[in-house]
Amino acid sequence: MKNRVRELRETRGWSQGDLGEELDVSRQTINAIETGKYDPSLPLAFRIAKLFRLSIESIFEPGK
Amino acid sequence: MPRYTARQYRRSMLLLMAIYLPLMLLEWPHVRQITSLPLKCVLTLLPTLPVIGVIWLIGKRIARSDELEQRVHLIALGAATGVVSVLSLIGGFLSAAHVIELDGDVLIWVFPVLCLVYSITQIALQRRYGVHGCD
Question: Per DSSP, what are the bridge partners of residue A60?
Fold first, then answer.
């Protein structure tokens, strides 16, 4: 699954650690999400969307 | 529940190992010479206390991990359980058929083998998810 997490995080000037702290997950998990190696659960995707004040579908899109 | 970092985990694990290793190296070799049965039982089983502590620590770490870390732990524990179960079955069948002779001492290796496979699988999964280099 593709996502815009890195782009949104960098726009706000946050490090992966900062975002991890906001979402209560590890920096490594943020890295795995950003690189597309791990697709977050629905509750975590909702937390990400809420944090960036966007809809889930505007952050995550299905891969080909 | 606050997250339990790898650093906190390692520190607690080292403390437990600092209790376990002296027990195994200094106390355990002399257990066979003790004649009092109650004392022998207590001293024989003493090293299991830090091991129970290690199991509790692993449980605590998993409970306080995030979802990706829990996934890694779950797969690693599944792989370790599978490998140990298959090895136990193979050993048990071969011993029952008198192909090999195994005594009870071999059970001491169950937990270390489980931990070894658990750790190897964890490292492989962390590489797969790009999460090596824990915080």
Answer: A3
